[in-house]
């Protein structure tokens, strides 16, 4: 379905009540916080976030309904491998459901008792920011290659080092070197 809504001022209520769906493809470079999180590794201009939004309502009583949004997204982001300090490609995947509640107090009260995430309803909601938040949360704490393309220090050199420096000292050195 073609969308006409501004994703930064998104009418979630209407979207949910009409049971709408959206398939979107947005360049990764449109999300400044994702770009920043990539540790300045160049992000190819053709890198995209593929995402899907589904809106629906659940009736709780005859007159009351809940507004729900399902968000699915995937994107590839280069991050610094913490083993070899080269760029490693990371696939970030989001698959969550959100229920909109009236206010912060309701969100706090109900948050412990439900599996879905609660968001405070805003008539014009920034769905783009929500997507970016969710993708940022998927960034691994310690990004790393499964198998690094190049070991940082050749094994023979490692053995030659005596005494062995503390791993933290090595890490600190590496961090300094990685800075331009
Ligand atoms: Zn690596």
Strand order, sheet with most strands:
1-2-3-4-5
**Structural class label:** alpha+beta
Number of domains: 1
Q: How many DSSP helices?
A: 6
Using only C-alpha atoms, the radius of gyration works out to 22 Å
List the uncertain runs.
none
Strand content: 25-35%
What ligands can be seen in this structure?
A: zinc ion
SSE string, helix = H, strand = E?
HEHEEEHEHHH
Largest sheet: 5 strands, mixed
Sum up the overall morphology in one term: elongated
How far apart, in Å, are the first and last alpha carbons?
Answer: 45 Å
Percentage of residues assigned to helices: 25-40%
Mean pLDDT: 87
Number of β-strand runs:
5
Description:
- This protein has 180 residues and is α+β, with helices and mostly antiparallel strands.
- The protein has one domain (12-150).
- The chain has six helices and five strands; from the N terminus they run αβαβββαβααα.
- The chain has helices spanning 12-17, 32-37, 104-110, 127-137, 155-160, 167-178, and strands at 21-27, 48-59, 65-80, 87-101, 117-120.
- Strands 1-2-3-4-5 form a five-stranded mixed beta sheet.
- Helix 3 (104-110) links the parallel strand 4 and strand 5 (117-120).
- It is elongated, with a radius of gyration of 22 Å.
